[in-house]
Amino acid sequence: YNSSTAIWTTTGNMTTARFDYTASILTNGNVLVVGGTPDGSYLAWNSTEVYNSSTGIWTTTGTMSTARYYHTASILTNGTVLVAGGTPDGGTVLGTAEVYDSSTGSWTPTSTMSTARYYHTASILTNGNVLVVGGLGNSSHLSSAEVYNPSTGIWTTTTGNMSTTRMHHTQVTLTNGNVLVAGGINDSIAGLSSAEVYNSSTGIWTTTSTMSSAH
């Protein structure tokens, strides 16, 4: 897509058909596509590939140690990519995480999350840590959250949980460093209009005003 002309142009095809994957912009402007599933079998890929934005060509890169989809992918401040959670088959819930180094094209496992989850969200905090929120666990929807420290490779649960369980929600880091989480569905599979804010200094969640409609 050309934002100057508002025109779409076809480009190179991926090496592997996939959906429910993640895509991340690398520091060199290329795009890393990770995991996903090819069809209704819902068996995951462990393959990854990179789109060269200058040539329009896709190239396979390193293979993850664990196949997954419904995961999150976060660009860390050093340019590496943290992939966390997901599922390999639509039933098993993953707590594992691994880091992609774009300079070598290789994946390295890092420590496992405190709680296995998929359908969760993730965002980068102002200190470079990664906040992972909610999702679906082994037996229920989750209200918990945890923080990954790239310097130590350790996950730590937040001081408090959200006021409600939620998955399929959205999450954004605000300019003041706090994180807004909104909408999604709860463990009753009901759409949510509620929202809450994570204070990155205290690790505490506070409810905020409700959206006009459930999303």
From TrEMBL:
PROSITE patterns: BULB_LECTIN. Gene3D superfamilies: Galactose oxidase/kelch, beta-propeller. Residues 1-96 form the Bulb-type lectin domain. Coiled coil: none annotated. It comes from the Eukaryota. It holds the Pfam family Kelch_KLHDC2_KLHL20_DRC7. Keywords: Kelch repeat, Repeat. This is Bulb-type lectin domain-containing protein. It comes from Adineta steineri.
